[in-house]
Amino acid sequence: MRGPGSNTDGGLRVSARELVVSNAPPMSVESIRERSLHVQALIKDLMVDGVHFMQIKGTNEKSLTKQGAEMLLSAFHIAVDPEITEVATADFVRYTVKITGRHMGSGIVVGVGVGRCSSNEEKYKWRRAVCREEFDATPEALRRIKWGSGERGTYTVQQIRTNPEDVANTVLKMAKKRAQADLCLTALAASDAFRTQPKPGAQQPTRDQVRQAARAPAVSTEVTAAPAAFKPPGNDAPRPATAAQRSLIAKKLDESGIPENAFFAQFELGRLEDITFAQVDPALAWIRGLRP
């Protein structure tokens, strides 16, 4: 017996909406072109490099940030419905987020995005030891010496394992951000729009060039002014930023609306506590350059 708004065929019950969607004709070439141009216009006119998207090192592609994904989803009236899967042990926590995107007006599913993040990723797994005493007091299996390179050449950093619970919320947000970005690129077929294309002709300096120019004198001054005596005893790492400097950066990020993950990616940090004294002035200049 057929119910209202449904159809049966060989025992299968199909809703009216499913029939409409399955029988819907493909988008016209003009509609696809219009959507693509809309995405490109948003990128060009409203999105800010370093805030809404960032260049992926070693590639010609850009990565959407949380703010960028939210802007695209809002522009195309797509509501998100996340489904979270958690795997947690004493040593790590991992989240897999599946986000279903639905058109706000019709409720029709327009795409699905998947993202995963784990506290075992390098930037979440380790943190700088507060002092030599903390490093020495940490069990050997939970600490390490990491080598790095900077303005003064190679250096070592004393690191200890983070508590997975301390970074669980950050890891969850990153998994959701990755899923939202995947949904945007999938539902809007926007991958090509986030490839860096060479632009012919003369241009005004880009934001990256402005930030680089602002960064250079600040780094130069700091390298000259910071004597080796300021290094923590027994640690060859660069001088860490003070608590007051970290608080100032956090305040400026909050005032500007710049997401922390964009800031961390720009300065290759796992957390704000990892920022060095030499990076403070470039960081403040970078934030000023992106403020509306």
Helix content: 40-55%
The major beta sheet can be summarized as: 3 strands, antiparallel
Measure the end-to-end span: 61 Å
Give the assembly state of these chains: single chain
Task: Give the helix/strand class.
Answer: alpha+beta
Order of SSEs:
EEHHEEHEEEHEHEEHHHHH
Instruction: Find the count of extended strands (DSSP E, 2+ residues).
Output: 10
SS strand fraction? 15-25%
Strand order of the largest sheet: 5-6-7
Low-confidence stretches: 1-22, 196-207, 209-235
Rg, Cα atoms, Å: 24 Å
Itemize the secondary structure elements and their pairings.
Elements: E1 6-9, E2 12-15, H1 16-22, H2 29-45, E3 53-55, E4 62-64, H3 66-75, E5 78-88, E6 93-103, E7 109-118, H4 122-125, E8 126-128, H5 132-137, E9 143-150, E10 153-161, H6 164-187, H7 207-225, H8 243-256, H9 260-267, H10 280-290
Antiparallel strand pairs: 1-2, 3-4, 5-6, 6-7, 8-10, 9-10
Helix pairs in contact: 3-6, 7-10, 8-10
